[in-house]
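PROTOCOL LOG
Step 1. Enter all chains and additional molecules of the complex.
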Amino acid sequence: MTAAPIPATRAGRPRRVVERGRRRSTLLTIIVWITLIYFLVPLLWLFVSATKDNSDLFTSFGLWFGRSFQFFANIGNLFTFQNGVFAQWLANTVLYAVVSAVGAAALATACGYALAKYRFRGQGLVFGVILGSIMVPLTALAIPTYLLFAAANLTDSVWAIILPSFVSPFGVYLMRVYAADSVDDSLIEAARIDGAGEFRIFGTIALRLLAPGIVTVLLFQLVATWNNYFLPLIMLNTPTLFPVTVGLAQWQATASAGGGAQVLFSTVLTGSFVSVIPLIVAFLFLQRYWQSGLATGGVKG
Amino acid sequence: MTVLSARAHSARASGASARGPRGSRHITGAQTRAAWVLTAPFLVVFAAMFLAPLAYSAYLSLFTSQLVGGEEFSGLANYVRALQDPSFWSGLGRVALFLFIQVPIMLVASICFALALDSKRVKGGRVARLLIFIPYAVPSVVATLMWGYLYGTDFGLITQIFHAVGLPAPDLLSPQNILGSTMNIVCWEFIGYNMIILYAALRSVPDDVYEAAEIDGAGQIRIAWSIKLPAIRQAILLTIIFSIIGSFQLFNEPNLLYNIAPNAVGTDFTPNLYAYNLAFKNQDINYAAAIAFLLGIVIMIVSFVVQTAINRRERQS
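Step 2. Run joint prediction.
Step 3. Record the structure below.
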């Protein structure tokens, strides 16, 4: 812990405080931007590697382009390899992620709103169980879920991925906190006096006020499902049902196993590069939402 | 638990006070019905996808599969076996190392970045914040795959750099180094995520507190140490708990590194990887269920102990 405030030290020491918070520190700026190299170089390497053919991968320097620019050829290979199964994986990933996110956000919103705005018997127990379940690690749950699905003969299907992803206890918790803060009770009361039914109030008034919270839950479940590897790995056997993560991992295993599979390296790297683009773009464009959402759910004191 | 439930409690209290003069209104049947209709969909899916799997695997863990004659009830035999299983303990030991080495490094780095960016003294701080966060958007499969190649001796960047300077390259995928290499991947993935949580917490502390301290002549470290960090202790606790859960269930990274370094990783590198290999390679489902269950219990105990310890220390100080 003693190392914690070092950057702040450097920022504060050289001068007396005259004006508030507006000053820049060159030293701190340099330190932060230098450490950024750590976070960005691997991704830069991935991009550069996606532009190389297999022989350049082995012979040229990793952070600069090879003798020939093969990016588009690699993309072509990626989408035609094994009858274009990569495009199928991308489509599967989008399907799983979008359906799971919408489903989980809808369930969490309704439940969180009800827990925040109604008093009913059993409420404390319901909320307590949901809170406790946040602590249960999801991958520790994956094998039990698989065993249950296997008993019901539901493995190796789209549902085996989507149904478990509908459950987001943290989403419920987040929506409960958000609803308590953002939907005013007097507003609900006024609507009741005007004769609006409970569901009408939820559908027309509350949903609009809850929108930023809903987007946050949506986005985080989207990321969780998009990046999910363990659950689809154990649930699915049919390659055409794989999401990108499982498919790429399988290609990587083939590439590393050798046996003339060396040709795969550039395909795996290009596939990896392509698969990270959508989420990075989504995060950059939707930053307003996830940043405010984290502020609400993660840290409200 | 305490961190979450304490906050939920305050949320409930504020919700109740917000009701104001109308607080005494009676609750109609329509409202109770609406409450149950709105909670039911989640609860049904929750019961089917969360409680049922746990109950079913608890049940399975009480049986032993026989070579002849199917399964036989064996009570806690699987748990006794697990507690005597060196593979389970070595996996647990490795994730404990993660807990004591990787988690502190990661969180200290996250705190430093959050404080630095919150101080508004960094040029281009907004851009830097986003760039640090980007690895979180990279699936752990891709992150591991990428780092695995960076570590590798074939066309790995790290090897290339060492050779360029004329030094012998370290084998980052050797049995001695693989744990550190895995820790680095997890740090890379999650420093930004934790930083964003902490940064958001710092932003929600009112500025006038710092300003008063600054006017009184307090330096920036002093403000960070004595005002900012205590103010965000709940958020720090949250990141600690999430990191504990994350470390214990480590699976994706070692499972992918196994493909490129089978001798260094092995099939029991972490408890989760061990359970997976038991279930899907050895077909020993009952034992795998016991390991998964035991792991869950260990995680709950450790998170609980950490929370209690931190909360108690807070109360004392």
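Step 4. Note key features.
Chain A touches chain B through 132 residues (CB under 8 Å).
Chain A has two domains: 6-74, 80-297.
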